[in-house]
């Protein structure tokens, strides 16, 4: 019985991993509010500023992927996160309350299939 459950788990993981679709835009939220929506087609750097106008994070779009180029937070977890490009993936900077999420792509998610 345990072997069957393990095999089902492995099969479902492979299925979900192979069904990821590439997104076509990112949304950036800061402190729970939409900061902006940007295309993944155009390479660019997006400075994220706090209420005083100081840059806290820099989001980098390059080659259809996005990563956090820099952050003013102490731990730098978001900066060391791998670049993302698939629909639903995200990078989160908790200290600065910044969320970058991939959206679009026109595919179906695993629940709607």
Low-confidence stretches: 107-113
Computed structural class: alpha+beta
The spatial strand order of the largest sheet comes to 2-1-7-6
What overall geometry do the principal axes of the alpha carbons give?
globular
N- and C-termini, Cα separation: 27 Å
What integer is the average pLDDT? 85
Number of strands: 7
Structural notes for this entry:
The chain has 113 residues and is α+β, with helices and mostly antiparallel strands. Helix content is 19%, strand content 39%. The protein has two helices and seven strands. It has helices at 2-18, 77-80; strands at residues 25-30, 33-39, 44-49, 55-62, 65-71, 90-93, 98-103. The strands form two sheets. It has a four-stranded antiparallel sheet with strand order 2-1-7-6, with no helix packed on it. β6 (90-93) and β7 form a beta hairpin. The model is unreliable at 107-113 (pLDDT under 50).
Short précis:
This protein is α+β, with helices and mostly antiparallel strands and 113 residues long. Helices cover 19% and strands 39% of the residues.
């Amino acid at each position: 019985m345990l072997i069957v459950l393990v095999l089902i788990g492995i099969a479902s993981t492979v299925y979900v991993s192979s069904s990821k679709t590439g997104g076509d835009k990112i949304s950036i939220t800061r402190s729970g509010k939409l900061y902006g929506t940007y295309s993944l087609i155009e390479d660019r750097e997006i400075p994220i500023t706090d209420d005083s106008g100081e840059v806290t994070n820099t989001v980098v779009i390059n080659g259809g992927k996005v990563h956090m180029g820099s952050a003013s937070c102490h731990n730098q977890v978001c900066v060391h996160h791998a670049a993302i490009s698939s629909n639903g993936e995200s990078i989160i900077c908790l200290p600065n309350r910044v969320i970058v999420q991939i959206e679009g792509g026109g595919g179906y998610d695993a629940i709607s299939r």
